[in-house]
Amino acid sequence: MGSESEFWKLEQKIVQCRxxxxxxxxxxxxxxxxVRRFKTxxxxxxxxxxxxxxxxxxxxxxxxxxxxxxxxxGRIFTGDRSGDWLYxxxxxxxxxxxxxxxxxxxxxxxxxxxxxxxLRCAPPGNKxxxxxxxxxxxxxxxxxxxxxxxxVIIALGQIAFRAFVKALHEAGETADRKLQFRHGxxxxxxxxxxLVSSYHPSQQNTQTGKLTRPMFHEIFRRTRNIxxxx
Length: 230
Prior knowledge:
This protein is α/β, with parallel strands linked by helices. The protein has helices spanning 2-15, 21-33, 70-73, 81-92, 130-146, 158-170, 203-206, 213-228; strands spanning 51-52, 58-62, 113-117, 152-156, 186-189, 193-198.
């Protein structure tokens, strides 16, 4: 119970974060100026916390909230095309109670799953600066330390993959320094944890066919099988 309480205190701290001046200015400007299709909505405009429960067996690490997705709705991977792909896959394989995520009040609940990200603020052009990733790194490290029941970690994209591997090394855990990102990669780590890597379901990947639905679903089918075997 102590770890869970500590986890939610951490998430409250994340929401109040102002470490990166560029990101603070950007997220606020996007929330103020908006876009036409969301002109009447009130934007979140703050760092976005993790979504799910800290006792989850599956932890998913993405890149960052989208400017008009998580930065608008206040929930990671919510209200954008990447989220459409992610939550559909989670629903298909029993990790969510519904296949869509459009707002914080839409009734979505995750089952044994926690979704988080390397960066908690939407970066301009979806391209964070190296120092911004460094500024946010201890939040991810702390979440990983507090999610004590994790058995599978899915890293969505190269940045998330590298951030996780770096967090392993900095936490003093043994990990192969030759880990290289690839779609469908799978590695056994210490503590009975499996790392799985996937292309990020960004429009850049899905619209070009670099990532297809069958490819993405296979990541979660394999994850479900791993968890069911334990």
